[in-house]
Records
---
Amino acid sequence: MEEILMTPGPVKILPRILEAMSKPVKYHRGSEFAALYSDIVEMLKEIFQTENDIFVLSGSGTCAMEAAIGNIVRTDDRVLCISNGKFGERFIEIASKYSNAVMPLRFEWGLPVAVNHVAGAIDYFEPDVVTMVHNETSTGVLNPAVDIGALVKNANAIFVLDCITSIGGDDVPVDNIGADIAIVGSQKCIGAPPGLSALSISEEAWKRITANERRKPYYMDLISYKKSFEKLQTPYTPALPLFSALHEALRIVREEGLHHRILRHRTLARAVREAASRMNLQLFPKRAYSNTVTAINLPHGITEDEMKKEMRRRGIIIVGGQDKVKGKIFRIATMGNVSADDVIYTINALEDVLISRGLLHENERGVGVKTAERIIEL
Amino acid sequence: MEEILMTPGPVKILPRILEAMSKPVKYHRGSEFAALYSDIVEMLKEIFQTENDIFVLSGSGTCAMEAAIGNIVRTDDRVLCISNGKFGERFIEIASKYSNAVMPLRFEWGLPVAVNHVAGAIDYFEPDVVTMVHNETSTGVLNPAVDIGALVKNANAIFVLDCITSIGGDDVPVDNIGADIAIVGSQKCIGAPPGLSALSISEEAWKRITANERRKPYYMDLISYKKSFEKLQTPYTPALPLFSALHEALRIVREEGLHHRILRHRTLARAVREAASRMNLQLFPKRAYSNTVTAINLPHGITEDEMKKEMRRRGIIIVGGQDKVKGKIFRIATMGNVSADDVIYTINALEDVLISRGLLHENERGVGVKTAERIIEL
C-alpha cells in the first residue's frame, strides 16, 4: 500500500516531478542551466505575484529566513518580530543572532496576530524591520498579511514575510502586501521535493542590503546571488536535480492555474475542517484558518503518538504538534498536489480511528467522509 | 550523443543513483529516514577514516565551510588561513566574516603549500585555528595534509581541512591527519548529485563550539545538528531525494572498496597527466599533482573559451581556470564514477582539438590515447 503523505512539507511528489528530477541538468555553468533557472524565476514571479528579483537557494526555508535577516539586519537595527507560533519564534531566534534590538511581539498560539496591537507596537517601537509568518504552520493560522504590510510600509520599515507554506497554494500578492522579502519553500504548496527555497527582494530591501556594511552570511550572501544571476548562475554549486524537480513542479502549477490552485487548496482545507467538526473534533485555531494546513485538538482518550500511529496503520501520514502545543493537537496538511481522494481517504481513516477509540459512535460512520465529499463536489 | 562530464563537480551520476533519487524517502521524521541517515554516516566514516561525529548538511561544500568557521571561530580568534588557490581564498573570505584576526598565508598558485613556511607562521602567529584546502581544485594541487596537520596539532590549534574534492577519491585519513573538522561535497569524488555536504567534528572542535558564546549561524548551527542527530534527524527539513542519492552513491563506493577507488582515481589522473605531457601540453602545477583533477596550461593558439567549446563539440564537458588563472589553464577532472573509457574519449577529443589547431602534428594522432591506455591497463 502506497502511504499518503498529509504532512505540512514534505508533500506528495507527482511522478512527473520525480521523472524530471531523475534527468537533471548536468552542469550549472552553461545555457541549459541558465534556461532552467530563468524559467523557474519567471514561474515563481507568477505565484509570488511580484515584479521583484527572485533567487533560489540550495537550502530549506530556514536557510532563506536566515538569508533575509542576515543580509538586511544590522547590529543596531530595531527588529519587530511578530509571533504566534513556532515559526514566528524562529524569526526571533534568527534576528537575535544579527541584531541587539529585537522586540518580540507575541500573540496567543491559535489566534491570528491582532492588527491594532501591531499598529501600536510599530508606533511605539519604530522598527527598521518587521518580520511575520503569513501561514503559521505550527497552529494552522493565517495571519493578515495585507493589513500588517500596510502598517509596515506606512512606517517606512522593511517587511520580511515568511510565506513558506502559503505561496503556491494560497493568495499571496507579494507586491500588494508590500513584502520587501517574501520566502517560499520548495516542498510545500509548490509540491516539489525539499531542499530548495526562494525569496523575493524589493528595491527598498536592496538599498538596505547594499548599505549593510556589517558581516553578512557568506553562503547566503544575496549580493553574490544577484551578481551570479546576471549570468543566470548561482554563486555556489546548486542542487541541480532539485532545480529540475522544482521546474517541473512549477510547470504543473502553471498548468493548473494559480487561481484554480488556490481554490482547490481552500476547498480541501475546508473539507478537512468541516469533516473534523462534524466528527465532534475541535479545531485548534479559533478563527483565521489556514488554507493549507488544519490543526485539530486531540480529543481526550488518544495521545498524539497513538493518533499518528493509528493513522499510519491506515496508510496516512500526519503530524502532531510542536513545542508548546506538542501532545495537544494533530495536523493534516492539504498542500501542493494533494488530491480530493487523498483527503477523503484521510477523513475515512480518521473516522475509523475515532470509532475504534469510542470517540465517535459506530452509527456515525461516514459522516466525516460525506461532509468532505459534499464540500469537494461543490 | 550523451555528453561526458569531466568537470570537478558536478560529476557523472550513475543510473543506479538517479534511480534511488527518484524513489526518495518521503518524510524526514521517522524510522525510514533514520535508517538512511545512520547508514550514510557509517559509510562516510569509512571514507573519512574517522571516529569523529559526522553530519550531512543540505547545502553545498561552501555551506559546510561556513558551518565549520561560523561555529568554531570567535571574533578574537587568531585564524591562519593557508591559501594556494581559489578555495584557500574562500576560507580567508569566510573567516574574515567571523574573526577580526585572520592571517592569510599565501603561496603561489600551482605550488603546494610549503611545510617549513607554515611551521614558521604557526610559531610566529600562534593561531587558534588553521584552515587549509587539501585538494586545491582551482590549480590541481594536492597539499601535504599530514605534515600540516602534525604542525597544527603540535601547536594545540584547531585544524579545519577542506577535503571537498579529495575524500572518496583520494586517501584522506582524517584522524591520522588530525583534522578537527574535515569537509566533503556530495558531487565530487563520492559521485552523488550536488546539494549536500558533510563534515566531521572532533572532540577538540566540540569543546570550542560549545564554549563559543558568540552568535553562530542559525541554519548551520552544529549544536542543533548534534541534538537532532540523537534522534537521527536533521534540525531543518533535509533535501530528501539527495539523501537517497548520496546513500546509493556511498554504497557504490563501498562496493568498489576505498582502496580500489583511490587507486582508480590515481591511475586515471596519471593517465590524463601523462597523455597531456605526451601531447606537448604543460601541466599547470609544478609538482604535488592532484589525484582527482588535472590543470593544464592552455597552449598558445587557443583561448579558454575555444578549448571548452571545441571539447564540447566533441561531447566532452571540461572547465577553464578561475580567478587569477582564468584564461590560462583548462582542467579535466577524473572524480567519482568516471570510467577509463570516459578518460580515453576525453584524451581522444583533446588530441583532435590540438591537431585541428595545428598544436599537434597529424602524424602524432593517437599518442595521447596510447599513453593513457598504457597507464590505465597497467
---
Amino acid sequence: MSNFGFFDLRLVEPYRVAMDEARSAVGAGELVASAKEFDSVGSAVADAAVVVGTTNAQGREVSRLLRRLETGARDWRNNAEPLAILFGCEKHGLGKEDISHCHTLWRIPTRGEHGSMNLGQAVAVVLYELIRDDTPIPTKPQRRAQQAELQRFEQMLADALAESGYVHSPSTMEKIRTLILRLDISQHDAAVWQGMMRQILWKLRHNRE
Amino acid sequence: MSNFGFFDLRLVEPYRVAMDEARSAVGAGELVASAKEFDSVGSAVADAAVVVGTTNAQGREVSRLLRRLETGARDWRNNAEPLAILFGCEKHGLGKEDISHCHTLWRIPTRGEHGSMNLGQAVAVVLYELIRDDTPIPTKPQRRAQQAELQRFEQMLADALAESGYVHSPSTMEKIRTLILRLDISQHDAAVWQGMMRQILWKLRHNRE
C-alpha cells in the first residue's frame, strides 16, 4: 500500500493476536499503526462512494458485476470519489454478505488452474493497476553518433580486416557499413568503439613491421 | 509466478539453508521443486534472447536503459523470444554486474519515498503487467427492463405516493419517470421492484379501508 501511495488501511474483525503483534512489531509501518478497525464491512465502507470487491470468481456464480481488473480499474483510476476496495481473507476470499456491499467486482487475471493469490501480492497488483500510467517518462535521449564518426569506425574496421587477411570483395565496405548502422550506436559509444579499433589496428600494423 | 503462468524459476547462488527448506517443505509447489540453480547471472540467462533487470533506480545513476514497467513491458508482452527477468535480493536489489547483463531495466512506479518493494509483491506486479490485457471480457449483458415494465412501476410508485399524502404537483409524474429511468433497472430487478411496490400499495389501501 505504501509503495503505491495508499494509506487508509481498514480492518474488519481482524484476528486479535496477529493484529496486536503486527502493531507492536519493531519497524511496524505508520500504515499498520494507524489502521482502523471495524466490526462490519458496512461500517468500514460507510464513507466510500464506490465499493469494489476483489474475487477470483471460482466456485461461485459469476456475477454480472464482475470485471477483469484491467477494465474495471480503468473507470476509477482518475475518479476523485472515495473508493473502497475489499479484500477477503486469504483462505476463503469475500463472502456473499461482503459482496452485497459492492458496486462492482474485480478479478485479477490469474490462471484458471491457480486462481487464488497470496493476499499481499493481490493487494500489490490491484493498487499497481490503479496507479499505473502508460505515458512514457521523458528519458534523456542518447545522442546518436554522427555519420562521420561511424565512417571513421567503418574505415578502421575495414583496415583491421584487411590487415588480418579477411576475405575482401568489392561489396565488403557496404556490408560493414550496414552492419555498423544496425548497431544504432550512440555518440558516446562510437568514441569508445573507435578507441578500441584504433588500438587493434595499431597492434596489427605494429606486429607486421 | 504460477498465478500468472510463469514456471521457469532460476536461482543464482541461492541461500542454501532457505532453499533446501523451501524445496522440502510440505506442499512446496512444483515450481519451487523444479527451480534450477546457477552460479552466475551469465549462465542463468544464457538461453534468453532478451534480459530485463528490475530496479527501483534509487541511489544510483539512472541508466538510459531505464523504462517504467508499463512502457517497458509493452514491447515484450507479445514477443515470442525467450525473456529473462532478473530480480535482485530484497535488501540490495541488482548490482552493477547483474545490470551489465540487461538489455533494458524496468522500474515499478512506486513512490519516491517508499521505492523498495517486497520481492514477492514485485514479482507479482511485473508478471501481472506482462499478462494483463485490456480487451474487455464478454459479459452476458443483463436485459434492460422494457418501458412498459418501468411504466407499471412508475404508476405504482405514483399511487403509493398519492396514498401516502406526498405532495403532488402536475410535474410529479415526470419527476418520478426521470428518477426511475436513471436507475437503469434490469428486467429481473424491475419485476422485484414491482412486487415490492405492489405489496406496499396493497398495504396502504388495506389500512385505509
---
Amino acid sequence: MTNETTNGRTTGSVVAEISTSLDGFVAGPNDGPENALGDGGERLHEWVYELSSWRAQHGLEGGTTNETDERLAESVENTGAVVMGRRMFSNEDGPWGDEPFEGHWGDEPPFGVPVFVLTHHPREPLELGGTTFTFVTEGVDDALERAREAAGEKDISIAGGASTIRQCLRTGLLDELRIHLVPVLLGDGIRLFDRSGDRIELERTRVSESDGVTHLEFRPA
Amino acid sequence: MTNETTNGRTTGSVVAEISTSLDGFVAGPNDGPENALGDGGERLHEWVYELSSWRAQHGLEGGTTNETDERLAESVENTGAVVMGRRMFSNEDGPWGDEPFEGHWGDEPPFGVPVFVLTHHPREPLELGGTTFTFVTEGVDDALERAREAAGEKDISIAGGASTIRQCLRTGLLDELRIHLVPVLLGDGIRLFDRSGDRIELERTRVSESDGVTHLEFRPA
C-alpha cells in the first residue's frame, strides 16, 4: 500500500503512535469512564501538552516549537484517516442505546479526518465538529480498508488502544510503530505488549529525544 | 556514595545494565539449566558479541570498535565489584551440596573483580580463574555494603537478573540504569519490570544508538 516519494518518505503508511512508560504501560491501573488514562496515566502525555502543534490541533494557542513539535505537525498533516478501538472512543459498550454516549472526545474532536471505530455493535455514523466517527463491526481488516479509501495517499493512524496496535502488528498490517518513551515506572496498568507468544523482528528506523521523552521509531522487518 | 570527578563523571555509582526486548523481556520463555537465556533470549545479546571490548573481556581477539564499544570498555574499566542474583550464578538452588555446581561462567569468568552472589544458602567463597564469588545470605543491602568495600571508589555493577535490579531500584539503591533496547518482540519470557505497584520517576540521562540496539540511560529522580 505504501509508495516511496522523491524525498524518500513513504506515503500511505499505516502508523501507530503511542506513549508508554519505561515499564511498558500505556495507561495506569483502575481505568474507567471517569479515569480514561488510569491512575497516573496522565503522566505519559505531559510531554505533548506543551507542544505548539498539539495545542493548535486542540484549539489552543502558543506552546513550544522544536523538532518534536515539527514531527508531530508533520504526522498530523500526513494523516488521512484514523482507526481506533472501541474503548478509545467510549467506555460505554454496545449494543448502543437510543442516545448513546458521544465518546471521550468532546464536541470538537481533534481529528478533522474520518475516524473508524472498531466495535461489535452496529451504530449509525456520528458527526461531531468536523469529525465523522464510523462504526465498523467487521474487524480490523475491514476498518483499514475503509480507512484506506478515506485516506487516499495519506497515512492511516492507528490511535490505539494497545490491543488494536498489537492486532495490527501481529497480522502484518502495521508499517510503522512510533513509541514515545516516558522515563517513569507506572508500576501497574495496561501494557502495550502482552505475552502473545509471537516473536516479531523490527528494524529501528529513528531515535530522537526531547524534554522528558525519547521517541523511538520502528518498522516490522 | 557517589563522587563527582573533575570531568563530571560520577564515580562509586551502583549501575545496572541489561539488554531487553522492545516488549520488555530480558530472557525468553522456558529458561533452565540448559537454556540460561530462555528460548530466543540469545537474540538480546547478539549486538554485544561483536564488540572488541566484549571479545577482549572473554579472551577473544578482533571485533568492532565504535562508540558503543568504547562505552562498554569504560564501563568494564570503572567496575570494581559485581552483585548478582543466585540464578545469574547458577540454576542449581541451595542448600549447596558437597560438590556444588561452579556456575554458568566457566573456568575463566569474565569479571576479574569480586562478585557477590545473593543466595539464601551459605557457601564458602569460590575462586575461578581470577574471579572470587562470595555468597551473601543477608540480603541485597549487605551485598552492596561488601561490594562497596571491595570496589573502593569504583562502580558496583548489578549484573541482574531482573528481580535483583528491581529490588535495587525499589529500595533506592540504584544510581544508574542502562537499558540496551533490542528491536524485537520476544512474545514471552522474563520481564525486566513487573507489576510492583510502585511508581518511580526517572531522569533520562543519555541516549545513543548502534547497529541493531538503542542504549538508554536513566537515573532515579
---
Amino acid sequence: MPLPEKALISEIRRLGHNRQKRLLATGIGDDCAVLSASPDQDFLVTTDFSLEDIHFRRQWHSPESVGHRCCARGLSDIAAMGGQPVALFLSLALPEDLPQSWVTRFILGLTRLAQKHGAALAGGDTAQSSHGILADIILLGRVPKGKAVLRSDARPGDRIFVTGKLGGAAAAVVKMEKRSKSKLNPKEYRRHFFPEPRIEVGRVLREKELARAMIDISDGLSTDLAHICEESGVGAEIDSERIPRAQCGKSKREVSLDLALHGGEDYELLFTAPSAVRMPRSIHGVSVTEIGRITRRNALLLRMGNRTEELIPRGWEHFPRG
Amino acid sequence: MPLPEKALISEIRRLGHNRQKRLLATGIGDDCAVLSASPDQDFLVTTDFSLEDIHFRRQWHSPESVGHRCCARGLSDIAAMGGQPVALFLSLALPEDLPQSWVTRFILGLTRLAQKHGAALAGGDTAQSSHGILADIILLGRVPKGKAVLRSDARPGDRIFVTGKLGGAAAAVVKMEKRSKSKLNPKEYRRHFFPEPRIEVGRVLREKELARAMIDISDGLSTDLAHICEESGVGAEIDSERIPRAQCGKSKREVSLDLALHGGEDYELLFTAPSAVRMPRSIHGVSVTEIGRITRRNALLLRMGNRTEELIPRGWEHFPRG
C-alpha cells in the first residue's frame, strides 16, 4: 500500500499505549485484537474498510458481491485467530444519488454471509458521503480464553501450510483491468466475487492445536508470510513448486506463480505447525498443503527448482490506480 | 440528514434479523448495541464515522480537535447507556498527500481523550482514501448485566432532564459559516472543538437508578427527544424557558432558542426519570436541568410562555453543504 501503514501502526502503538493491560490480551498488529471478556472467554475485534474505487468498483461488482466481500474480510480475520464470529457492525456512508435497491442488495449480500457463520448484524452508523460508497465492517468473535492463534508464535523448524488454492482472486482483477467494459462471470471467479472465509478450518486448527501461528492471506502470500516472520522474529523458506495455484476462468487455467505468490484477497489461511504434528490433507473439504519451513535466519527465501532466491513481499494494491 | 436513514435502519433490522437472540440483548436503534459478555457483564458497542467535509473541515479544525471530536462521539454513546469505556478501534483512510504530522496530532487528540476515560486504542484498519480523510471510530464499553439505560424505557409522567447547556457546539458552526476565512478561537467554543462526553454523569445516573430512559444529544434536542419518544411509544412536552442555553464566543452571549433546540453535537445527556426521584442539581460538577414531561399522547410539544406549539424535530446536518 502506498500509505506508510507500518509507520502509522507503530505511531498508534506508541501513542495509544494503554493503561488497561489486564483487559487487552493482544493489541494492534494481529488480525484481531484480543479482549478479556470473562474468566473463560476472550473476545476478538477486527475492523475493515471497504471503499469504492479502492476495494471495489461499482461497474465490476454487483451490490451483493460488495456486501459479501466486505463481510468476508472481517470474518477471515476471525478465522485466522481460530475464533467463532458473534456479531457484525456496519458503518455505511452513501452518496445522495445512490438507489435504495443498491443498498438493499448490498445488505443482503453482507447479512447472508454473516448469518451463514452465525454473526448477527447488531448495529452501526449511517452518514452521507460526498465521494463514493464507504463501508467499515466491524466483526466481533469469541475464542476460549488464551486460545487465540496469533501471528507471533511461529518457531524455527515449524512447517508452513496454506489452505485451498492461491491467486484466484487476483486473477479476476487482472482480467477486469484488461477488459474493463464487459463484466466477468462471477461463477468463473468465485474466489474474487464471493470468497469463503475459512471459519470452520480455523476453528479445527485451533481446537486440535494443529496451528502454532496463523494469519489470513489478504495481502498476498509473500506479504502475509512476512507478517508472520516479523511478528515471530523468524525467517522462512518456501518451495515454488508446492504452492497450490487456483484454476479459474472458463478454461480453468492455472494462475501464474506470480499471482499465487503476491495476489491478495484469497482469504485462505497461512499457518505454521510444529514438525511432529500429523496434518490432515484436508479439513472440512478444504485442502491443506505444506509449502515450506520456518527458519532461524531472518530472511524470506523462495526455492525455484535447484536454486533459492530472496522472496520480496510485494504487498497488494486492491486495484492499480485507474 | 438527507439520507433515508430511518429506511436504512429498518432495512438492516429486517434483513439482519439474527439467530443469536441470547447474545444480543439490544440491537440496532439505540446509542450502542448491548451484547452479553459474561454472566455478570454486558458489552456496549458503537461505531461512528467522522468524514472530512461532512463532520469536520481541515481549514476549521486542528488535527487534535478532529481526533478529540471523533473519540467524543463514540464515548458519548457509551455515556448515554451509563457504561464504562473499555477499548477503542480506529479505521482510518488517508489521502496520499496528507502530512505525517497531521496524523500524529490527530491520534494524539484522539488517544488523549480516550485515555482520560480509561479506553485503550486496541486496533483498527488503515487504507488509502481517494477523497479526503475518513475515520470510523468503534467504542467498546461495559455495564453490569441488564443495567444499560435504554432509549425505549420512558413512561408517561416521567420528568425530562438535560445535563449542561445546549447549542454551544452549533453556535461555532454558524459563526464559522459566516466568516469562513479566519479561524475561531477553540477556547471560546470548547463545546464545539473539544466537547466533553458525560461518562461520569451517565455512570452516576445508572448506578443510582436516577435515569429511566437516556440518549446523548448528538442530533439536537428536538431530534433526540423524538428518538426517545418513538422508541418508548410516548410523547413529550418541554418548556422553552427552562432549556439551558450555552454561552459562548468572546462576549459569552447566550445562544438563540433555535440553536439550543435544534443544534447538534453538544454531547450532553437527555434523560427521563420517574416523578418521585430526587434529582441532584448537578452531578460531578455538571448541571442537571428539568425541562419538561413525558406524555401519553403521541406528540412533541413546546411550551412558549402561555401557548403551546408542536415541536418539529429538525435534525442536524453537521455542515450545510458548502
